[in-house]
Each structure stands twice: as structure tokens, then as C-alpha cells.
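Predict structure. Input: HTH-like domain-containing protein, 75 residues.
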Amino acid sequence: MNVQELGKILGEMYIKAPHGKQVAKIHLFGVKYADVIQRNHYSVKDIIAASGINISYATEVSKGIKLSEYVIPRD
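Output follows.
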């Protein structure tokens, strides 16, 4: 999985999120894909740029990555 693919997934998660749940979905993205992002040393800012969402959300993705050590996503 590359930066462009991750960006597409993030953008879709954001767009499809129910109103008021967009930031939670960004955190969830960070949790779900933390391993891929860290293993490949991908830049969160590059993923955000590929997603088309506001660059200010990079902090929220980083929070999700940090949370990944402590939580497991539910389907």
C-alpha cells in the first residue's frame, strides 16, 4: 500500500463519515493503518495531501497512530 492509496482511503473515510464524526474517522484511519505508515516511514502530511482533506488534520492522523498502541478497531 502506498501513500496515494492511503490518501484515497482517508479521503473516503472522511467524506463518508456521519456529520460530526469526521475527526473520529480520521483517528480511526490512524489506528487502522498505523502499522503500514510506520513500517514504510510514510509522511502523514503526504498522506493528508493525497487525501484532499485539510492539512490541519495531520495532527489527528498522528493521534490515531499513537492510539494504535492501545486500541483495537471494531468492525
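The chain has a mean pLDDT of 96.
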